[in-house]
Structures are given as C-alpha cells and as structure tokens.
Amino acid sequence: MRIDRTLYLLVFFVGQVSAPFAQIGADVPITGKPAPGFEEFDRAVVDVIQRDHIPGAAIAFVKDGRLVYARGFGWADEAARHPIAPTSVFRLASISKSLTAIGILKLIQEKQLCMQQKVFTPPNYKPSAGAGPCGRPVLDLQPVKCWGCTVDPRIYDITVQDLMQMSGGWITSRDTVNACGVMTRGSGEWSVQRAQQALHMRNPPTTAELIRFGISHRLDFTPGTCFSYANFNFTILGQVIQRVTGEPYEQWMLENVLHPMGATHARVSLHGNSLPNEVNYYNVLPNGENRRCCVDMVWPQIAAAGGWTASIIDLAHVQASLRNGIPDLNPLTPETMSLMVSRPANPKFAGRFQYWTDGWDSVWCPPESGGPNGCTMQTVSWEKGGDFAIGTITTYASWFNGVGYVLLFNSHTPTNMPDINRRLIQPMVRSRTDWPSWDLFKEYP
Description:
The model is unreliable at 1-21 (pLDDT under 50).
C-alpha cells in the first residue's frame, strides 16, 4: 500500500463562512481548510474519486510535527448528503496492528513484558527458582478439545517477538506452497463463526476462547523461522496487553497510548454498530453504483488486529508523536523507538533494508544508514496499511524527511489506493519543499 502543485484555482469559498464545504468537482464536496499550493492536488484527488465512483476519502499531511493539511473529500453518507470532514472517523482495519504494537512496546519499555518472553503456559508448568517476570509465560490459556484439533507443542515456544514480527507459525496464504516452503492450510485466520461452530457454542466465543481454539491446531512453521502475515498474531497480542495490565484492552490503550498521543477520538468499533461521527461504508459495484455495506465487518474479538476506528487527525497525532514528540508526547523512549524499527531476527529479512517489524508493513532506509540492525531513527521511514477487501482501505506513513501522511477511504476499489497514494501522494512526499508553515493541530483540539 502506498502530489503536484502550482496553478491556484479560485474555486474555494473561503470567504463564505456559511458555506459548509467547497466543491471543485460535480458532487464531490471538499471540507477542511484549503492549503495554499495544494489546489492541483485537490483537483487530482477529485478526478480519481469521480472516475472510480469512490464515495469518499480523508487525507492529512504532517511536516516536522505540524499538521499542514487535513481535508475530507466526498460523502460520509451519500443518501443524507453528509460530507466527510477531517474529524470523521473510519475503521482502520490493519492499522490497528501498529497501534497494538505501540502498546506492547510501552509495556516492554516499562519492564512489564519482554520480547523473548514465552506467550503460552505449558501444561503442568512450574516456574524455575528465581525466574523474574519475563521468565514466566504470559497467558494461561490452554487448547480446547474439538474435532480435527491437534495440539502442536511448538505453540509453547512462541514469544512476544514472534507475534510482533508475524512469525508465530501461522500462514494465511491460500497458495499450495508459500514462501516458507511449506504446504499451506490457511490456518492463520481463526474466524469467530468457525470457532463457534466447532465448539458448539450458542453465543460467539470471547477473544480468549477464539485464541484457545486457534492454538488447538498444528502450526504451519516453527515459530521465529519464517514470516507470514496472519491477523491471529495480533489477536493474541491484544490478550497479552489485557493480561499484563489487568485492564480491558481498549481502556488501557486509550488511557496509556492513544489519548496521551493526542488520538482522542480513537475507539474500538463494535460489530453491527456505528460510532458517533463514523462514516458509512460502501461496496462500489462494476456499474458505478455505490451500495452501503459492511456495518458488521468487524468483530470485537479481533480488536487488536483490526478493530480500531479513528480520524485522520488522530493518526496524524500518532505520526507526529512518534516522529517528533520524543520524549514529550511519545509514550516510547528513543531506545524503544530504535527497537521498534530494528531489523527482525527472522532469516527472511537478513541483510535487508526494507522489512516488516513490530506492527509496520514496511520499514525502510538506505543501506548506508549504518544502523547495526537496519535503520537508525535519523534515516528510517515506516508505513502501515489496512483493508477489509470491501468497505474500507487505509494507510499512514512517516518518512525520514519529517513528512507523514494519512489516507482513509470508506470504500475499496482496485484503483483508489494505488492511484491516490502512488501517483499523487508519494511523489509529493519525496520532492515537495514548500510545505505550509501553519499548524492545523491548533484547530482540532
């Protein structure tokens, strides 16, 4: 997952306080404060939205810790003609993983958790004499007995680091043989419905019950030896946070991670419900029709892997805090930030300067950066995206040159993310030098 300027188009009704939004394209409202020099970019975004019948999007840019651009395009509710605003909240999908990873890193920083700590407690476990907090497994969750279940003893070797780096042992690819060189069963996505049916439960399983069902099956590879993107890793990490802190996952994350970073409107979305100021979601059909959908696409059990909602303002705060808030607004110290972007021990990434690690889809830096484990904080860039296949697609990123961006859609088409992100945003991030000097964070307290 992954912008041009000049030409000032006087199409913004800046002086008209009564106007709720500006509009440059037919039926594509634009909200938020116009930024000088971004007029051509605004029009290009509208062109993509019109061409592909995208209901709406929200885009933000951060430069050196300042919010310099925050605008909504299109409709949060097409039927009611409610435009998307910079404060509209979207389901973030897998961006939730990077938020969860920040929480795990904070616990590691506070020495409540360790990267090499084992996650699952073996049967008849007896702690060794003098074992400190990190010498004991985190979760006392045991596999369940069910038809077709075969407990794999390797689950007791899984560490916090394995989960953070997507090397817990589960593969979700449907290919016959994946990059790990093993046959795939697609076992890494333990659906709520599948667990409920297999366990003959009247009500949907809790997160703990879903995890117990998942660890009742054989792993696809030995933990720590390969990489495969599986949501189940982060479903478990959410339970780790809850177990270590003794507080509900969402509550602890809000109080200790997101609110201190300025993400005050972030919430975990609930299955079958919309949150206040949340956009509607749409399935864009081949004939250009937009059909509302997907209210029930997120189950609370997968909150830590894909359940968060937030606005572009919230995620801009997160990016500005991580990049520029050290140590005032950032819950992570410089040492923990270096851990966040260090190259995984996983053999797949040996010697590489672009890799997955600790909740980010991509961490990259120039090979000459000199970092012993990959990037240093002075040269590193990172990115995380997410999608639900229908209904939403999202990304946010922070580049080494101090520029960060957030891009959220309330629909999913084959072209919306590539065309806006790669064709418009990334060229601007690489080359633009005349960023606005203002800080719009002051307008969104």
